């Protein structure tokens, strides 16, 4: 007797596939049948595990919140300079939105996050985890002398997050360059007034 695949497919694989499908068709276009077909199981098995399409998307939102912290840990361990790690963290966190169409589809998911309380708590957790990671990296950069002493890292972290969100939207509209290129430029612009001059001097205001 040949055994089926369903029990051998981890939830993590299902959720990764769900995220990929959301990127292609958006949350409205996602169906359990499409996800089930791509992971090699029947829709009824997804219903048993997640209850419904909403349950599957909630599980994806919850996993995204967990992944946000893990991404920071991995990025920090792989990149020594804090500001380099900051750029990598930002670019990797936006990697699923590699095309304007994918950006639009994930933006549609964000609209659910903003209007549905259960989804919102997970989206807020992602936002807070990313904000804390950015603050930590900026604080490290101050300690290392890459940023000026006395830099308000909390305010600067908010500026970096705002620049990230705004850059993504502008790129999806004007479609100039790649998202990664534009994000790097946006972060450089946000950080430039706070960078320590190479000679360690303090620039005086005119």
From TrEMBL:
Domain HTH tetR-type per the UniProt entry, residue ranges: 8-68
DNA-binding region: 31-50
SUPFAM superfamilies documented for this protein: Homeodomain-like (SSF46689), Tetracyclin repressor-like, C-terminal domain (SSF48498)
Keywords on record: DNA-binding, Transcription, Transcription regulation
Keyword Cytoplasm: no
Keyword Transcription: yes
Alphabetical list of Pfam families matching this protein: TetR_N
PANTHER family: HTH-TYPE TRANSCRIPTIONAL REGULATOR BETI, HTH-TYPE TRANSCRIPTIONAL REGULATOR RUTR
Protein name: TetR/AcrR family transcriptional regulator
């Amino acid at each position: 007797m040949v055994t089926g695949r369903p029990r051998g497919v981890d939830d993590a694989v299902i959720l990764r596939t769900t995220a990929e499908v959301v990127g292609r068709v958006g949350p409205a276009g996602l169906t359990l049948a499409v996800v089930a077909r791509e992971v090699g199981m029947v829709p009824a098995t997804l219903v048993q595990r997640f209850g419904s399409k909403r349950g599957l998307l909630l599980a994806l939102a919850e996993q995204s919140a967990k992944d946000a912290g893990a991404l920071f840990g991995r990025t920090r361990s792989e990149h020594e300079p804090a500001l380099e790690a900051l750029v990598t963290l930002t670019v990797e966190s936006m990697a699923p939105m590699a095309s304007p169409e994918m950006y639009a589809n994930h933006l549609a998911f964000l609209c659910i996050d903003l209007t549905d309380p259960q989804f919102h708590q997970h989206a807020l957790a992602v936002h807070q985890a990313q904000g804390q990671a950015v603050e930590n990296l900026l604080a490290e950069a101050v300690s290392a002398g890459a940023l000026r002493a006395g830099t308000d890292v909390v305010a600067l972290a908010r500026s970096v997050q705002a620049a990230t969100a705004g850059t993504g939207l502008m790129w999806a509209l004007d479609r100039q360059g790649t998202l990664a290129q534009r994000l790097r430029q946006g972060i450089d612009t946000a950080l430039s007034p706070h960078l320590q001059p190479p000679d360690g001097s303090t620039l005086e205001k005119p």
